[in-house]
C-alpha cells in the first residue's frame, strides 16, 4: 500500500512540474513535440492623417465648384490727387465683352472700396479702354465696341457709382469709337476726337461747359468756335492742334494738351 501511495505522489509531482514550466504539448506529424507558448505582441496601427472638422458655415473643398477663369484681365488706374484714386478691373470674356469692376481709394491706396460692376448693371459690359476723372464727382471712360454710330463714351456724375452713355449729336454711322476727351486747364472748354471713322465723315466735338454738352464741328484745318480757335498742323502723318482760348495758346497732340511756347 505504501509503495502505491509513493508512486501516485511521484506522478502528481511530475504533472505539477510540467504545468508550472509553462510547456504545452502540440501534436505534429510523426509524434508530439513541445513548444514554447507564443507571446503575442500588438503591432502598431498605421498612422491615419487627422481630418480637421469643418468650421461652422464652411464648405469642404470637394463641395466648392471651380470657377471659370476669364480669358484676360487688365487694370486701369487714375489718381486725382495723392489720396483720391480709382482702379478699374477689366476681365475679358470675349473680343468686345468684359466683366468690369471699379474700386476707389481715399487714402492713397491703403484701402479700396467697390463702387460699381458690370454684373449689377452700373458699368457697361464692354471692355473699358480708358478712364479719366476731372473732379471727385465727374468721371469719363471709353469702351471698345464694334457698333457703328455708337460713341462708346460714358460719364459719371457721382464719383463712379453709376455711368451713362454720352449721346453725341450728328453722330455718323461710320463712327465706331472716340478718344478720351481732353479738357483745357483753367477753362470750361474741351475737345472730343473720333478714334475710328470714315474719312468722308471727318468730324469732332467741342464743349464749353465741361462736357455737359457737345457740339459737332466739321473738321477743317483751322476755324473758330465761340472763344476757341484751332489750327491743325500735319507732318509725316502726325497731326497736332494749336488751340487758342481767350488769348492763351495750347498744343493738343491727340491725347494731351500743354501750353504753347
Description:
The chain is mostly beta strands. Among the domains are: 70-167; 178-261. Helix content is 7%, strand content 39%. It contains one helix and 21 strands. The strands form six sheets. The chain has a five-stranded antiparallel β-sheet, with no helix packed on it. It has a four-stranded antiparallel β-sheet with strand order 3-4-5-6, with no helix packed on it. The radius of gyration is 44 Å and the shape is globular.
Question: What's a quick, concise take on this entry?
Answer:
The chain is mainly β and 261 residues long. The chain is built from one helix and 21 strands. β9 and β10 form a beta hairpin.
Strand content: 35-45%
Structural class: mainly beta
The largest sheet has its strands arranged as 17-18-19-20-21
Low-pLDDT stretches are: 19-71
* Apparent shape: globular
Mean pLDDT: 75
Helix content range: under 10%
Roughly how many Å is the radius of gyration?
Answer: 44 Å
* Elements, N to C (H/E): HEEEEEEEEEEEEEEEEEEEEE
Number of helices: 1
The largest β sheet comes out as: 5 strands, antiparallel
Q: Tell me the total number of β-strands.
A: 21
Gap between N and C termini: 149 Å
Amino acid at each position: 500500500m505504501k509503495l502505491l501511495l509513493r508512486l501516485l505522489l511521484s506522478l502528481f509531482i511530475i504533472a505539477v512540474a510540467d504545468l508550472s514550466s509553462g510547456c504545452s504539448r502540440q501534436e505534429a506529424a510523426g509524434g508530439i513535440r513541445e513548444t514554447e507558448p507564443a507571446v503575442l505582441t500588438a503591432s502598431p496601427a498605421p498612422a491615419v492623417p487627422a481630418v480637421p472638422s469643418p468650421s461652422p458655415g464652411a464648405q469642404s473643398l470637394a463641395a466648392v465648384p471651380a470657377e471659370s477663369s476669364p480669358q484676360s484681365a487688365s487694370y486701369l488706374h487714375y489718381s486725382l490727387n495723392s489720396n483720391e484714386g480709382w482702379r478699374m478691373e477689366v476681365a475679358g470674356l470675349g473680343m468686345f465683352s468684359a466683366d468690369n469692376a471699379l474700386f476707389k481709394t481715399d487714402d492713397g491706396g491703403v484701402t479700396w472700396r467697390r463702387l460699381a460692376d458690370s454684373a449689377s448693371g452700373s458699368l457697361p459690359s464692354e471692355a473699358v479702354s480708358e478712364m479719366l476723372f476731372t473732379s471727385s464727382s465727374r468721371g469719363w471712360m471709353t469702351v471698345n465696341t464694334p457698333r457703328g454710330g455708337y460713341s462708346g463714351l460714358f460719364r459719371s456724375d457721382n464719383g463712379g457709382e453709376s455711368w451713362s452713355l454720352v449721346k453725341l449729336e450728328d453722330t455718323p454711322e461710320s463712327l465706331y469709337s472716340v478718344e478720351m476727351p481732353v479738357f483745357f486747364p483753367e477753362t470750361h472748354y474741351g475737345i472730343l476726337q473720333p478714334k475710328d471713322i470714315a474719312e468722308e465723315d471727318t468730324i469732332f466735338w467741342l464743349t464749353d461747359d465741361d462736357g455737359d454738352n457737345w457740339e459737332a464741328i466739321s473738321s477743317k484745318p483751322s476755324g473758330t468756335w465761340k472763344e476757341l480757335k484751332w489750327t491743325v498742323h500735319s507732318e509725316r502723318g502726325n497731326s497736332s492742334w494749336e488751340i487758342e482760348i481767350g488769348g492763351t495758346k495750347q498744343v493738343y497732340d491727340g491725347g494731351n494738351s500743354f501750353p504753347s511756347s
